[in-house]
Fold this sequence. Notes:
The protein is α/β, with parallel strands linked by helices. About 40% of the residues lie in helices and about 15% in strands. It has 4 helices and 3 strands. It has a 3-stranded parallel β-sheet, sandwiched between helices. The chain is globular. The model has no long low-confidence stretch (mean pLDDT about 85).
Amino acid sequence: KIAEVYGGAHLSVVPTRGRFPEGLAMTVIEAVALGRPVVASSVVPATEIMQDACWVFRADDPADLARSVVR
């Protein structure tokens, strides 16, 4: 079921904000494992592990998020 959901997506966006920190963010790991590009905020811990597999934007910066999605 998860593969179907991610398979229909062009990319996965994880716009976590600073005041709502997450744990490992399994959504990032799942998306990368299924070949989907990921755009995630700078406060998502999984971006440190995934490094080049994610485009990281500054949390609480909508313009930076938009630039990352357009890439």
